[in-house]
UniProtKB/TrEMBL annotation:
The keyword Glycoprotein does not apply. It holds the Pfam family Cytochrome_CBB3. This is Cytochrome c. It comes from Halomonas koreensis. Residues 1-20 form the signal peptide.
Amino acid sequence: MSRRLLIALLVAVPMTAALAAPPDAARRAELETLLYQDCGSCHGMTLRGGLGPALPRSRMQAYDRDALAALILQGIPGTAMPGWAPLLSEDDARWLADHLQHDTPLDR
């Protein structure tokens, strides 16, 4: 692969991700329920920790949004963190990552 093509791909991928439309209001509500109920079953209903670690904004902001979305989709092999790709689209995972980085009740 040429260096020019590699640079073009690296530049194009984040732009494509940024252009995706956010989920509609009904889907956002479903995703919030999933976050606080399903993710909360391990990370605590208020995301303050449990079986899994706490998910404060300060910790979530240490990740790039797309890297955090990939972690949500793929999970963490060898741990209790499952991959959610069978249930979530990439746009859903990006919205959840953005929500975790900016809109969770922790760190307020």
